[in-house]
Amino acid sequence: MSSEKANELLLVDQLFRKLFDKYYKLESKKYLSKSLEDLTVIEINTILVIGHGSENKKMSEIANTLGVTFGTPTVTIDRLIKKGYVVRQRDEEDRRQVFISLSETGVDVFKSIVELRNKIAEKIFCILNPQERKALIDILSNVNSHFDKVFS
């Protein structure tokens, strides 16, 4: 590998890491909203997973979306239930099945998180001109569509 290519790869790695670090700091509870202070970043991500898509989620769906083992979200779900953001329900036909959904408070928090994320994305987007926005979307789409194939 040429030294020029090695330098480019190092630069890309550093830029990705800096960008992700800045983005995660923006998403952390101290930057989001005072109304979310009682939530950890893991709890916020879990609320987002539960809130997207279908009303009721199985624990396995939540674990798969978060990229963790089946038992990992159990503690987080228990904390969210105690805080009043999440509801656990058993299936009437098959009592072994447990479904997780957001409470009314959880839905409000979900909407608040999505709104705040959209504001962050909008601020990032405003930095770029229209051609750069299109290029960014194209590049991120391309990387995203090939990511799993490249790293499987």
Automatic annotation (TrEMBL):
- Going by the entry's taxonomy, the superkingdom of the source organism is recorded as Bacteria
The GO terms describing molecular function are:
DNA binding; DNA-binding transcription factor activity
**HTH marR-type domain mapped to chain residues:** 12-145
What is the protein's given name?
A: HTH-type transcriptional regulator SarZ
Determine if Transcription regulation is one of this entry's keywords: yes
Read off the lineage from the record. Bacteria, Bacillati, Bacillota, Clostridia, Eubacteriales
**Entry coiled-coil feature ranges:** none
Q: Which SMART domains match?
A: HTH_MARR (SM00347)
Q: Which UniProt keywords apply?
A: DNA-binding, Transcription, Transcription regulation
